Amino acid sequence: MLNVLRTLERLMFFEHLSTLSQYLPESI
Question: What is the per-residue pLDDT across 1-28, written as a single tens digit (0 to 9) for each?
Fold first, then answer.
């Protein structure tokens, strides 16, 4: 169960990063 939670957390983290990347310049 803990592995599932960590996987979901990681997916949400990457989704959040991809959302931020839309607002940040690609030079970063």
Answer: 789 999 999 999 988 888 888 877 665 5
User: How do the residues of the chain divide into helix, strand and coil, expressed in percent and rounded to 5?
Assistant: 80, 0, 20
Measured between alpha carbons, how far is 19 from 6 in angstroms, rounded to an integer? 20
Cα–Cα distances in angstroms (integers) from residue 5 to residues 1, 12, 19, 22, 24, in the given order: 6, 11, 21, 26, 28
The pLDDT value recorded for residue 26 is 67
